């Protein structure tokens, strides 16, 4: 008998995958955590019934969260990742030699523990000497930081449970305070097919705080609708005005210098959400 997992992405739509085995099914202090092996996408991390990452397509999300802001900033040295306990964003951050220190603040230590065990190629750099891992509340870490980071990346789940406050305007105001005078931040902001109101609200909130605010997209097949958005807020540096000589060679599977710019070219129904 085949076993299938279905993520109910809306009340009327879901995505289904065949499961070979279940490694972990646990209620942590913060959320329901499942780690499974799928037939199509390899090992997969699920939080509160939502797909977080898989071995097959993880590189898209992690590369686009990390490389767009890091290449936009002329000299990123001190980087913060809020969430991201699987370690994928950290792995990509460390491909930039200018980064002297990357701080990861993940609220759920179990995400880190099981990612190291079952997603080792994603969590590969969590013990790198340039990385500081804190099992703590990212919201509170931001609230107590000031003029500290060059780039902040918010690698959160969807806006439910412990991640809901990471989509509030007050959080973005805290991020602005935690950034240096030419700092940049990026956050995943869900998809335009099922959560258009969220994209509109976040873009409006970030635009009131950051003089340069832009939206870009990527194709991630295991995320709702497959079309995913990221909102970037910058104090000085425009991701659409990065000089060509700033792009240095790094090993990627999705991001390229050409895609860096192309990702900001939005379908009209998406750009309409930003008006």
Automatic annotation (TrEMBL):
<dbReference type="InterPro" id="IPR037163">
    <property type="entry name" value="Spermidine_synt_N_sf"/>
</dbReference>
<comment type="similarity">
    <text>Belongs to the spermidine/spermine synthase family.</text>
</comment>
<keyword id="KW-0808">Transferase</keyword>
<feature type="active site" description="Proton acceptor">
    <location>
        <position position="155"/>
    </location>
</feature>
<feature type="binding site">
    <location>
        <position position="106"/>
    </location>
    <ligand>
        <name>S-methyl-5'-thioadenosine</name>
    </ligand>
</feature>
<comment type="function">
    <text>Catalyzes the irreversible transfer of a propylamine group from the amino donor S-adenosylmethioninamine (decarboxy-AdoMet) to putrescine (1,4-diaminobutane) to yield spermidine.</text>
</comment>
<feature type="binding site">
    <location>
        <begin position="137"/>
        <end position="138"/>
    </location>
    <ligand>
        <name>S-methyl-5'-thioadenosine</name>
    </ligand>
</feature>
<dbReference type="InterPro" id="IPR029063">
    <property type="entry name" value="SAM-dependent_MTases_sf"/>
</dbReference>
<feature type="binding site">
    <location>
        <position position="62"/>
    </location>
    <ligand>
        <name>spermidine</name>
    </ligand>
</feature>
<dbReference type="Pfam" id="PF01564">
    <property type="entry name" value="Spermine_synth"/>
</dbReference>
<dbReference type="InterPro" id="IPR035246">
    <property type="entry name" value="Spermidine_synt_N"/>
</dbReference>
<protein>
    <recommendedName>
        <fullName>Polyamine aminopropyltransferase</fullName>
        <ecNumber>2.5.1.16</ecNumber>
    </recommendedName>
</protein>
<dbReference type="Pfam" id="PF17284">
    <property type="entry name" value="Spermine_synt_N"/>
</dbReference>
<feature type="domain" description="PABS">
    <location>
        <begin position="2"/>
        <end position="235"/>
    </location>
</feature>
<feature type="binding site">
    <location>
        <position position="86"/>
    </location>
    <ligand>
        <name>spermidine</name>
    </ligand>
</feature>
<keyword id="KW-0963">Cytoplasm</keyword>
<keyword id="KW-0745">Spermidine biosynthesis</keyword>
<dbReference type="GO" id="GO:0005829">
    <property type="term" value="C:cytosol"/>
</dbReference>
<dbReference type="InterPro" id="IPR030374">
    <property type="entry name" value="PABS"/>
</dbReference>
<dbReference type="GO" id="GO:0004766">
    <property type="term" value="F:spermidine synthase activity"/>
</dbReference>
<dbReference type="GO" id="GO:0008295">
    <property type="term" value="P:spermidine biosynthetic process"/>
</dbReference>
<keyword id="KW-0620">Polyamine biosynthesis</keyword>
<feature type="binding site">
    <location>
        <position position="31"/>
    </location>
    <ligand>
        <name>S-methyl-5'-thioadenosine</name>
    </ligand>
</feature>
<feature type="binding site">
    <location>
        <begin position="155"/>
        <end position="158"/>
    </location>
    <ligand>
        <name>spermidine</name>
    </ligand>
</feature>
<comment type="subunit">
    <text>Homodimer or homotetramer.</text>
</comment>
<comment type="pathway">
    <text>Amine and polyamine biosynthesis; spermidine biosynthesis; spermidine from putrescine: step 1/1.</text>
</comment>
<feature type="binding site">
    <location>
        <position position="162"/>
    </location>
    <ligand>
        <name>S-methyl-5'-thioadenosine</name>
    </ligand>
</feature>
<dbReference type="InterPro" id="IPR001045">
    <property type="entry name" value="Spermi_synthase"/>
</dbReference>
<dbReference type="InterPro" id="IPR030373">
    <property type="entry name" value="PABS_CS"/>
</dbReference>
């Amino acid at each position: 008998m085949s076993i299938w997992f279905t993520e109910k992405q809306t009340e009327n739509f879901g995505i289904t995958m065949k499961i070979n085995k279940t490694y972990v099914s646990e209620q942590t202090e913060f959320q329901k955590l499942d780690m499974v092996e799928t037939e199509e996408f390899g090992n997969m991390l699920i939080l509160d019934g939502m797909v977080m990452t898989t071995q097959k397509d993880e590189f898209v999300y992690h590369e686009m969260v990390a490389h767009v802001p890091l290449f936009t900033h002329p000299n990123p040295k001190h980087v913060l990742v809020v969430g991201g306990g699987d370690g994928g964003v950290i792995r990509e951050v460390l491909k930039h030699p200018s980064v002297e220190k990357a701080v990861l603040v993940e609220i759920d230590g179990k995400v880190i523990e099981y990612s190291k065990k079952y997603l080792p190629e994603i969590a590969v750099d969590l013990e790198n000497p340039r990385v500081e891992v804190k099992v703590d509340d990212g919201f509170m870490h931001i609230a107590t930081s000031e003029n500290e980071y060059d780039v902040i990346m918010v690698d959160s789940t969807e806006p439910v449970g412990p991640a809901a406050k990471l989509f509030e305007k007050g959080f973005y105001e805290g991020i602005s305070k935690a950034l240096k005078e030419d700092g940049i931040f990026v956050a995943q902001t869900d998809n335009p097919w099922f959560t258009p109101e969220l994209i509109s609200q976040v873009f409006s909130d970030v635009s009131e705080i950051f003089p340069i605010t832009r939206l870009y997209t990527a194709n991630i097949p295991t995320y709702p609708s497959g079309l995913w958005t990221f909102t970037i807020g910058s104090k000085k540096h425009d991701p659409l005005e990065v000089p060509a000589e700033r792009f240095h060679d790094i090993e990627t599977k999705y991001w390229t210098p050409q895609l860096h710019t192309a990702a900001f070219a939005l379908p009209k129904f998406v750009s309409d959400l930003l008006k």
